[in-house]
Each structure stands twice: as C-alpha cells, then as structure tokens.
Amino acid sequence: MPSNVKPKQDSLMLTRRSFGAGLAAGTGFLAFALPVRALTVDQARGLIDKAISEINAVINSGKSEQQMYGDFERIFATYADVAIIARTVLGTAAKTATPAQIAAFTQTYQGYISRKYGRRFREFIGGKIEVIDAKPYKSYYEVISTATLQGEAPFDLRWWVGDKSGRQLFFNIIIEGVNMLTAERAEVGALLDANGGDLNKLIAVLKTS
Known about the structure:
This protein is an alpha+beta fold.
C-alpha cells in the first residue's frame, strides 16, 4: 500500500511570504545547463508572454477550481519541458528507473504539479503576472516577471527557458530567489524515501494528491 505521507499541498503558496517559506526546504540552485542553440532572447520572452497570458486568462475566467486544474495542466504541458522537470525532480532514482516507470512518473507528475500550482494560482484572482524583461543567463535565458495580488506589493518570478528537448520551453521558475526545481526535488525525494524507495508507490501517491 502507498504510504500515508502526502505532499505538502501548501508548500508552494504564491504570495510574498508563504511562497518563499514553502520553498525554504530547497538547498541551493541546481547546476542545470541547457544549450541555447538557436533560441533567442525575444523567443524566450515571447514564450513566457504567451504562457502568462493564458495563466492570467484562466485565473480570471470565473471557472471552478476543477476546471482550472485542467486548464493549468494544458498550459504546463504546452509551455514547460515536462520531461526535463520530471527527471530532475526524481533525482538519482531516474537512473535506475525503467523507461516505463519514467513515462508513468512524467505523466503523473504533470498532473500533480498542475494541480499543486493550480491551487496557488487561484490566489491570483483579481491580480496579474506581467513580463518586464528577458536576458541571457548562463547557457539559457531568464525571463523576468512580476506578480501582483490584490492588497500586496508586487513580487519577482523568473522563468528559465531553453530548447534542450528540441522545443522552446521553460524548465524552472525562481520565486524571489527560491528555486522551484530544488524544492520539488527535495519534496519528491522525501516522498520516495517515505515509500521505501519504491517508484511505483510514489507514482500512486502523486496520482491522488
């Protein structure tokens, strides 16, 4: 049976205080270099402009929470490098997993992370996210945006964009200096440990989270 240990649903609150606190378990930035290849700064900015436009449309659409989850998963699947993100958060366990397990984890994680962030993005109702700049960063691009919630000062979101998978996609989000990939890897690793290192059990837990 899967462990009763569940992911921390409130670990990624999209507010100035709670989002940073929820990600505090992260232990520094991942050394993750993606080749820029033919990707340009304008293309990177354009990708995130489109993603943010769709996110803003969903959070202010008046749809139910369940309907929003489906929209957020579609956006995540369209604009995020899900395969890279999934393998990164799985960590060393990805090296011993079978291709079938990797495929199952990737698909399950796509739904899990969409629901997780979907719950938090709902807090943006009446607010907005806006791209303000983009620049080369290491061997990929960083697109800088600000998020504004009603009654709160704007805060910083940075999107890392590359094309390692052959498509222009984002593979990480930095929220006021806090690294999403690092935090997710720590949490997924803890869940895997809680399930005896059994990847199939971890997949089952994420499906119901």
